[in-house]
Amino acid sequence: MEKEQVLRLLPKDKFDISTIGELVRLKEEEIQKILPELINWIVDANWLVATPVAIVLAKNERVVLPYLIKLLAPEHEDDEFKFFIINLLVPMLSTTAQAELLPSILRIYENPTKLERIGSYFAAESYLEQLQKNGSIGV
Hints:
Blueprint: H1 3-7, H2 20-24, H3 28-39, H4 50-59, H5 61-71, H6 79-89, H7 95-110, H8 120-133
Helix pairs in contact: 3-5, 5-7, 6-8, 7-8
């Protein structure tokens, strides 16, 4: 499917879940074509479309993972976005993918930027506490 065709499947607004079924059926290479636009729909977990889009992203974690690493880097300054990535999307990923993101989450917890202290630090703290409680890591 061409990028223009795939772009038509993006939600029209924060309540639009009409194309989620089609998004779920896309191949990884098609998701990759619209990844920056698609991931923007999880910027607020309160939006109706956020959780279904997060499910689509988690299903395609192999192509999504490198992008998530970039978004969780200190240079990326959208703290609210980092907060929702950690709270909403990361728990949906496989344990292997979560392990790949763990250094980024630990960095936010141990050495947050000034902006990250506003929100994503707390998401990282909560995520790490949950891992520790489940016996997944010894932080």
